[in-house]
Amino acid sequence: MSLRQYLIKQKTKSGELDNALDSLLPDPNVEKDAETAKTVTVANSSVKDVLQSPNRKRKRGEYSNYSSEQRAKIARYACEHGNTSAAKHFSKLLDKTINESTVRSMKKQYIDELNKTPEKKIVELSRSPKGRPKLLGKYDEEVVDYVKNLRATGAIVNKQILIACATGILEHKCRSMLQENGGHIALHRSWAESFLRRIGFVKRKGTKAARKVPANFDELRVEFLASVSKIISENNIPEELVMNFDQTNISIIPCGNWTMEEEGSKQVEITGLEDKRQITALLTCTMAGNLLPPQLLYQGKTDQCHPPVKFPKGWDIHHSENHWSNEQTMLRFIDTILLPYIHEQRDRLNLPLKQPALAIFDVYAAHRVESFINKLQKAGILIKYVPGGCTGELQPLDLSGNSQIKEVVKSCFTAWYAQQVGTQLKAGKTVKNVEINLKLSNIKPIHANWIIQAIQKVKDQKGVIRNGWVRSGMLTVDK
Predict the structure, then answer these.
(1) Where do the record's region annotations for Disordered lie (predicted)?
(2) What is the pTM of this model?
(3) Contact assessment for residue 76 and residue 110, using Cβ atoms and an 8 Å cutoff
(4) For residue range 403-446, what is the model confidence (pLDDT) as tens digits?
(5) How much is the average pLDDT of 192-206?
(6) Which one, of 243, 420, 274, lies nearest residue 337 by Cα?
(7) Of 132, 195, 247, 449, which residue is the least packed, with the fewest Cβ within 10 Å?
């Protein structure tokens, strides 16, 4: 709290600011010397005037701007006649006061320029750039040109794309500047956001209703957790057979719905964000920390829409007209993913053939189809729905697993994009002429390999999967 704030507070208590000040300032009446008492009185009066002033902030002086030519003339005159003479001469000539310190800084800059190129006559002297130096230095403008050219074609511009293209440009121009190569530059999301804001780009996104937790969430949570615990206990279900499955959309170009557009734009045309540029990954995890093979759904009517990639054994690669799960794909999911896993675990753990398993999932439409529910029950799989609107708080894969897989895919995309930029620059293309082929025919098989890497990486981290169960409250970890 400042002195003035304290005194204002005293004023509200005592009713008078003067009284508060008098209690804090020296009392002139105790001074024996009349001259000293007079000095104290004058000082007290000055302090009161300042503290009681409604606006104590010092008014900023006016800044004078000089053209590059004027700065060069002032600096040259100062070199020949001295700083003080130059200040007086140009104050009169330009009809405004020029401080000697201003002349001094111009002169210093002028001499520095002369030392760099002594044979050159300096007729212009630009101002020194304000603020922090740009992280990318002389390569900053190349990245700016690339981003603006990219957006002019209607392509996606976001932080992920920016980091990738900047990395590619630096890898080609001066790879030693990058932190991974021992340099000082680390390109992260906060830098990308600052960069885009500096060049006049702002976030634009399609309208989407915010997810709301039910008003009685606490009550629903207690009932849900109690029910899950009861089912597991009564049926003696091991952690390996307590499963959660969930659909998550993975963009072929991993950049979400955000794009960057120049500030003031009324409409944002985004090439490459159509729904067909996504796939659905139906993931399944267990309370024991296992991540089962996924079911990947591509958009199409035949196997021709599948990427020409050899997927790991046990994965179910299928399709639907809109790449969303439906009754047919869910029935297939039981046969290709759930049942093989459950049979394997029953054998491995020496469990009875009719040992029940528990499947926990949300109330998505395809999960409530009668044929699907009947098939689960016939296979000895008990069902527990996550309460509607509570998946973000109670569904393990939403809490830990889905996001980690998507982050790995994003990292793979960034590395690939940067490599593409660097390769084209090495081949002699200019930054403005770099074109990255993001057509489905080209990117789909590459994207499939990213998904393989991502799922394998998360599968190897059982702690990541178990963390979702812990955060949901269904699993307690001993401290």
Answers:
(1) 45-67
(2) 0.66
(3) yes
(4) 999 999 988 888 888 888 888 888 888 877 888 888 888 999 99
(5) 76
(6) 243
(7) 132
What's the start-to-end Cα distance of the chain, in Å? Answer: 43
CA distance 255 to 410: 8
User: What are residue 282's DSSP bridge partners?
Assistant: 247, 295
Q: Is 280 helix (H, G, I), strand (E, B) or coil?
A: strand
From 373, 418, 381, select the one nearest 181 (Cα to Cα): 418
Please classify residue 439 by burial: count the beta carbons closer than 10 Å to its beta carbon, then call 0-12 exposed, 13-18 middle and 19+ buried.
exposed
CA atoms of 308 and 254, how far apart (whole Å): 20
Long-range CB contacts (within 8 A, 24+) of 75-79: 75/103, 75/106, 75/107, 75/109, 75/110, 75/111, 75/122, 75/125, 76/110, 76/122, 78/103, 78/104, 78/106, 78/107, 78/110, 79/107, 79/110, 79/111
CB atoms inside a 10 Å sphere around CB 456: 12
Can you tell me the distance from the alpha carbon of 403 to that of 465, in angstroms, rounded to the nearest whole number?
Answer: 11
* DSSP-based three-state secondary structure for 438: coil
Residues 6 or more apart whose CB falls under 8 angstroms from that of 5 comprise none
* pLDDT tens, position by position, 315-326: 999 999 999 999
Separation CA 232–CA 358 (nearest Å): 8
d(CA 293, CA 315): 5
Of 397, 244, 249, which is closest to residue 323 (Cα–Cα)? 249
